[in-house]
Amino acid sequence: MAIKQSFDYIERELFFGKSKVYMLAINGFTQTEVLQHIVADVQSLSDGEGKIRDLENFIDSKLGFAQVAYVEDWDALIKNLLSGQTILMIDGFDRAVSIDTRTYPIRSISEPDTEKVTRGAKDGFVENIIMNTALMRRRIRDPKLTFELHQVGTDSKTDVAIAYIKGKAEEGLIEEVRHKLDDMQITSLTMGMQSLKELLIPRSYFHPLPSVLTTERPDVASSYLEEGYVLLVPDASPMVMVLPCSIFQFTQSPEDYYKSPIIGNYIRMMRMFSLLASLLLLPLFLLFGVHIPLPEEFALVNTEGMTPLKLFIMVLVIEVALELFRYSTAHTSERFAGALSIVGGLIIGDIAIDLEWASLEVLFYGAVTMLSTLSIASLEMAEGIRIYRVFLILCTGFWGVWGFAIGLVLVLLSVITTPTFHRTSYFWPLVPFNGGALKTLLFRYPTCKAQPSSILKEQKKKRK
User: Fold this and answer.
1) Based on CB atoms within 10 Å of each CB, which residue in 144, 208, 361, 412 is the most buried?
2) To 5 degrees, how large is the angle CA 331–CA 334–CA 338?
3) Residue 392: per-residue pLDDT
4) How far is CA 105 from CA 31, 57, 75, 131, in A?
């Protein structure tokens, strides 16, 4: 350890009575004021006393801090030190004292940008595992709620907590998560949640859809815990992972449950329609505009005088341009995002039409496709659908009807074979079929009907 070379190590040589003490901590991870009070109290109590004879008795009687532990080997000592704890090594004893005075740099709790709701809770997870578990514990005051702490990464030693409610989560699932975390061969989780997802479920380029569900909202995470799911809570990440996962979970949003049941169901149906529109609208526009001309009374596009190659290039240009526009606004300061959207929507669109790089029809269907993509609740699902859409556009543009048909079959195969955790079908509860679970995932039920049956039985008994 480069204690002398690294400026952020705090080291002091102190005396407790006549016993020499070496203190070691890391600046920025330690609550300095708390540590000063602890040391000052111990030194004042031990002033003039002899050497410490019984370490445990001395700590129990003199050190009135809540979280104190004894460390007997160097590996544990280094791990505690690098995680932010203060180490006291007292002369004459073969074990050190670890005091949990740590604090981490943390931003304020705020609503996640990607999971906003018009009504409801406005808090979200932060990059602190202690704070994140407390946000869930605040909502579920159940003694069976458990957070098992594991460390992943030989260098980073990132804390990852397995969260579940005993008796509700499947024991086989919990055990599989434990084995996966303990057997991970990785130096560090530098990219946090994304690194953890790729290690848990390896995937190929053939599967762009997400294999696990992540959320930044404590209320959503708590509801999944109550339903028997297992959560992974990594430190230094504002997200938690929900295991296992199916495609129907990506059609849900917390907004559905902060509205009345009928409004929530309407919004959910619109979201499902948007998912299909995001995938198929532009490829179908290209297909019916060039390869399968519709009768004039049913035609929704005007492609008169348009060659197949020109229309194909226009669709590709609009797809790429709208994607660049979306990324530019997403990574632009909020002060300029509004002005950029006006410039992109008015000026660039008019110029593209004047230069004959696009037509009104192509711009319209491209804009509707973009709106449909933005209305998908999960950002990862929307990005996967976007990859499928570009693939279908290329297949349709190069090979026509057969290209669209073969491309659609390949997309369906990719979706069906998307790998998941714990050998769960990506289309559960449709495959294997579970009617009750499927209705719960597809529809938003009133709270009284959504509760477990045991609670309903207790309510009926009280009424009688």
Assistant:
1) 208
2) 100
3) 95
4) 11, 34, 25, 12
